[in-house]
Every structure is written in structure tokens, then in C-alpha cells.
Design a protein that fits this description.
The chain has a domain of 50 residues: Nucleoside Triphosphate Pyrophosphohydrolase (Alpha-Beta Complex). By secondary structure, it is an alpha+beta fold. The chain starts with a helix and ends in a 17-residue tail after the last helix. The chain is built from 2 helices and 4 strands; from the N terminus they run αββββα. The strands form 2 sheets. Strands 1-4 form a two-stranded antiparallel ribbon. The chain has a two-stranded antiparallel sheet with strand order 2-3. The longest helix is centred in the C-terminal third of the chain and has 13 residues.
Length: 84
């Protein structure tokens, strides 16, 4: 079971901080891989971190789960937080 679902049992509907990763995948022409999340809504592959994972591990796992693509080692580019 996903970590956030285990935590949700204890905190109910209280706000949670849920770290996650997204990954920017470019082809040889510089086009970005997007996935359709729901009709007409597109986003980058990614998802929530599981216990014991790094941000890079999370991105690699999520890309495999969501796209079937196997990607190599990654380097963290940036961390974004805050209201903006």
C-alpha cells in the first residue's frame, strides 16, 4: 500500500505534506513527453515519494509505472516549494 494511504488512516482529512517527483523527458527533437492525466489535462510523468526513496528513485519508479519506460540514473535539478 502506498505510504500516503497508510498515513491518511491516522490523520483523516488533515492536510499532509506529500513530497513527489516529476521528470522532464525530451526526445531527440527536444519535444517533451506529456501524459494525459484526464481528458484534455496533460502533465509530466511523476508521482508521490514512497518511504525510503530519494527524489530520483521516485522519478525512475513513477516513469516506469506510468509509461513503461526504463530510464537511467538521474541528477536532481531543483526543488520547488512555497505558495508560488
Amino acid at each position: 500500500m502506498e505510504y500516503y494511504k497508510q498515513i491518511r488512516k491516522y490523520v483523516g482529512h488533515q492536510p499532509l505534506i506529500l513530497p513527489g517527483s516529476n521528470i522532464l523527458i525530451l526526445n531527440a527533437e527536444g519535444q517533451v513527453l506529456l501524459q494525459e492525466r484526464e481528458p484534455g489535462i496533460y502533465g509530466l510523468p511523476g508521482g508521490l515519494m514512497e518511504l525510503g526513496e530519494s527524489f530520483e528513485d521516485t522519478a525512475i519508479r513513477e516513469v516506469l509505472e506510468e509509461t513503461g519506460l526504463h530510464i537511467g540514473a538521474l541528477q536532481l535539478c531543483n526543488v520547488y516549494s512555497g505558495p508560488d
